[in-house]
Amino acid sequence: MHCQPEYKGQVYIWLNNNQNCLLCDEPSETALALCAPCLDELPWLGTQCGVCALPLPAAGQVCGQCQQHPPAFHRVVAPWCYEFPLDSLISRFKHHEQWPFGRLMAELTGQFLQFRFDEGLDRPDGLLPVPLSHQRLRQRGFNQAVMLARWLGEHLQLQVEPHWLQRIQDTPAQQGLDAKARQRNLRQAFALAADAPVAGRHLALVDDVLTTGATAQALARLLLDAGARQVDVYCLARTAKADTPG
Ligand SMILES: [Zn+2]
Ligand SMILES: [Zn+2]
Q1: Using one digit for the tens of pLDDT, what is the confidence trace for 72-105?
Q2: Domains defined for the chain, CATH in brackets
């Protein structure tokens, strides 16, 4: 009888995975569309600010910005630095509609968050994607934060509420304004749906990249003012330097 394949390993691989690595195109041999060496080489975020996740040289520290102006959000959780190849993966997902890249990053972020929950990080009551301006939504046709939140919600069995946060103003004019006025301007760009039951809840904002944290700050303030108990921020990547708005 030679109807059974001799090499069980191949059968196992074939049964579990017939996809190639999205980065190097070699057979991935993992349950993901990413091979083990490429996974290892991703720019995993190391020591960081305990609040905003800004990369810092030593562990257990809070950055100067967070010390001087403690943000409204409780903490930022992100697996990666916004560096190559993460920046390119995010751009392919966001600007070239390559959904498998988004799905892959959401899957890995879901695993990362589950690991953090197992370690004691508080699970939120729900996920709130950062809303996109109407103008951006028209240009892009989809909100990448909503897609990420749905994939994460599926993976972590968390409720996703894509309509609680609303962007009521398109790009507010920020030029020539000081930091305080910019923050006020940004806060006026967002609103909470009238029937959003945020009071007493622990919520997590979801976005692709965190740069200055100004948007997260405005949204967290809005939610806390409406009675939310705690607001965390989950994103794929954190920039090392806060030099672009977002
Ligand atoms: Zn690879
Ligand atoms: Zn910080």
Answers
A1: 999 999 999 999 999 999 999 998 888 999 999 9
A2: 44-238 (3.40.50.2020)
Give 138-159 as a 3 state SS string.
Answer: HHHCCCHHHHHHHHHHHHHCCE
- Among the bound ligands, the one closest to the CA of 42: 1
pLDDT digits (tens, 9 = 90+) for 127-155: 999 998 888 888 888 999 999 999 999 99
What is the structure's pLDDT at 177? 75
Contact assessment for residue 161 and residue 196, using Cβ atoms and an 8 Å cutoff: yes
> Alpha-carbon distance 126 to 153, whole Å?
8
Q: Which one of the ligands is nearest to 28 CA?
A: 1
Residue 112 has pLDDT above 90, yes or no: yes
- The one-letter amino acid at 241: K
CA of 130 relative to ligand 2 center, distance in Å: 20
CA of 54 to the centre of ligand 1 (A): 27
Interval between CA 122 and ligand 2 midpoint (Å):
19
Q: What is the pTM of this model?
A: 0.88
E strand or H helix at 182: helix 179-188
Closest-lying ligand to the alpha carbon of 38? 1
Write out the H or E segment, with its range, that includes residue 181.
helix 179-188
